[in-house]
Design a protein that fits this description.
By secondary structure, the protein is mainly α. It has one domain: Ferritin, CATH 1.20.1260. It has four helices and no strands. Helix 1 (about 10-40) packs antiparallel against helix 2 and helix 1 packs antiparallel against helix 3 (about 90-110). This is Ferritin-like domain-containing protein. It comes from Thermobifida halotolerans.
Length: about 150
């Protein structure tokens, strides 16, 4: 069944689990992507990418724990993810910014659930993703987490 989106859950608990799962999937991709980038990027950004990798691992683990606490089976990561062909420092930095934008979007969706603790988690994670984008040398978008930085 292609092209048909899953219906949005109407139960707040279901919506929270769905948003947690999406954020966890984004974190899995970020961990994979930063592992790739850190192994190939120049020394100027190597330590930064390793630090970002550790932050995403922590985010992944926190989301995993939230799902387990809700009695949900957390999704695992993919066997492989799309990676950039160009492995120059600028291309890898742009790739890392894309990882941050993807996780920011997932956390923005998590912030929309009606569970205060998850909103707090999502707000902090969205702020951290925004700071990582800035650390990578990318300009701040008007609305971090929104596709294209716009409403």
């Amino acid at each position: 069944m292609t092209g048909t989106p899953d219906p949005t859950p109407t139960d707040p608990a279901d919506a929270a689990v769905a948003a947690l799962r999406d954020a966890l999937l984004a974190e899995h991709a970020a961990v994979y992507g930063y592992g790739f980038a850190a192994s190939r990027i120049g020394s100027k950004l190597h330590d930064l990418c390793l630090a970002h990798l550790e932050e995403h691992r922590a985010g992944r683990d926190a989301l995993h724990a939230e799902l387990v606490a809700r009695g949900s089976v957390p999704p695992g990561g993919e066997d492989a993810y799309a990676l950039p062909e160009d492995t120059g420092p600028e291309a890898l930095a742009a790739f890392a910014v894309g990882l941050e934008e993807t996780t920011a979007q997932a956390y923005l969706e998590l912030a929309a659930v009606s569970v205060p603790g998850l909103r707090d988690l999502a707000g902090r994670a969205l702020g951290e993703a925004t700071l990582r984008v800035l650390a990578l040398g990318s300009p701040l978008s008007v609305f971090p987490g929104f596709p294209g930085g716009e409403l």
